[in-house]
Write the structure tokens for this entry.
Amino acid sequence: MGHENIAVGLDIGTTKIVAMIGRKNEFGKMEILGIGKSKSLGVHRGVVNNITQTIQSIQQAVQDAESSSGMSISDVVVGIAGQHIRSLQHSDYITRANSDEVIHDDDIDRLCNQVHKLVMLPGEEIIHVLPQDFKVDGQAEIKEPIGMYGGRLEANFHVVVGQVSSIRNIGRCVKSAGLDLSGITLEPLASSNAVLSQEEKEAGVALIDIGGGTTDLAIFKDGIIRHTAVIPFGGNVITEDIKEGCSIIEKQAELLKIKFGSAWPGENKDNEIVSIPGLRGRDPKEISLKNLSKVIHARVVEIIEQVYLEIRNYGHEEQKKKLIAGIVLTGGGSQLRHLKQLVEYITGMDTRIGYPNEHLAGDSDSETTSPMFATAVGLVLTNLNKKNRTHASARPKEIDEDLDFTSSDQENEEVSAETEAQDSVNQRGFFDKWADKFKEFLDNAE
């Protein structure tokens, strides 16, 4: 797709795979042109565990999106989550050769590149290097060092690390589904692009994205990403528990959860009962809603407490790090009744449900603004912002060489995994290098 203002996000989730096509309209808002979703079969807790099934599910979702939009999809940006993701803080510095010249993009690239050379544990690879704040010659808390004078440039980084094999497997699935991978973004970062307002990010906010297999957390303060984490369970374990607890099949458990489930056990009377048809001529089962709520409640409390632990690890209790905007819940799991009240009760923080309409055009379909699509919307946004920046920083060379965007082997098409945290064009060059390396590595891995 040769259109600068069109992008495709592919959310490979544990429960569903969503392909979403979007474009920026003249007001800078995003319009969703097409959406396709399929049941995800080969993914467990955010990690691909069956390549063949995942490829089929991806193809299905992409075909749906293509037929609903009348376009053909060639390259996608993919979200990554899963229990192998971890993040760390790191600070690094460079000494500039000529302190008579102002600090330039290249200096920041050099600094980021240096962080990329960090030695990780065997089998791990850096996914994102996000500069948080800079120091120039010891002067701290600089948000944008470009254009300043100084000899020593330091920065604190938020580094996101993932397992090489998991990343390669995702790349493999996308490639085998006949698509080009134009970038990888951490899912909680994508979701926060779609759901959070700039004010919330400034005030301090924790985004909790409760998916099927994982619960993702992203914490922002002063407009900067401060902490990310992936907790390896989500809505599916609740369904599992209902299935075990009530001895029914998964499909019934999922329906029960959606139709009658509540995270707050106090509200059901003792005598409220649902009857579930038995299998193959067996007697129907009677399930009391109070017990159903108890099962759900127990599991939800466990998930929230894990997340709250991460929020405390970040340092929410310190005055300077306080998250004034509280918690935003999104993802399919956020639609559980009374969840907001329960989260407020456990954490004592203000909570709202986040719909991914922060940057969507006003007339968007209500289905696409469901919290279930937060990650997909965020991936498209991330990709659109990336494309805008690529075109803004006029680099005709790549574009001329690659006028037919359909060729399957677009070596020179820019590939970059970027997030809002790098709103300035400057980090681009270095992401390209990383992604070219990554692409090469995928091609050689075949």
